Amino acid sequence: MAKNWNPSWASDVGVNHTPAYQVSGRPFAYTQTLVSATKTKVKFEYVTRWVCIVNKGTVDVRVAFSSDGLNSPANNYFIVPAGNGTAGVYHSSPRLELKVSELWLEATGTPEVSVIAGMTSIRPNKVSGSVGPSWSGSLGVR
To answer: Which domain covers residue 77, as residue numbers?
Structure first.
């Protein structure tokens, strides 16, 4: 038997490890008031199983998967629209089944934004590429 043989049950958990996505995610909740026209990074301790972004403000919030995605001429971000200013009436993204290690937020005002996620047991370095632990450089991310 080869000396460096690693039985499958002892393999490292990686980004394609199906069981990590089949179980309920570890809870994550983050709320912050954004600074106008300033990029805000939300870094996850583990790769997410799903995420949801809640915009509690009266201005739209842009959400990207890399810092460059917010400035991309190809608009490599999506928008969580503003609420109507009525207390308790917020807009949110649907529950997005995404494996990410960070999100980037930006707005032209100062909305309060919440990020809720279910995290896997996969460490962020498992999605690292040549530009770091994000999908930056990927098609549609920039």
So the answer is: 26-125
Query: What is the CA 35 to chain-centroid distance, rounded?
Result: 19
Neighbouring CB atoms inside 10 A of 88's CB total 6
- Total domain count, the chain: 1
Distance between CA 26 and CA 46 in Å, rounded? 9
Most confident of 2-11, 30-39, 61-70: 30-39
Query: What is the rounded CA–CA span in Å between residue 115 and residue 34?
Result: 12
Distance CA 56, CA 88 (A): 8
Q: Measure the CA–CA gap between 77 and 141, rounded to whole angstroms.
A: 8
Give tens-digit pLDDT for 97-135. 998 999 999 999 999 999 999 999 988 887 766 555 555
Of 133, 111, 108, nearest to 123 by C-alpha is: 133
Predicted model pTM: 0.82
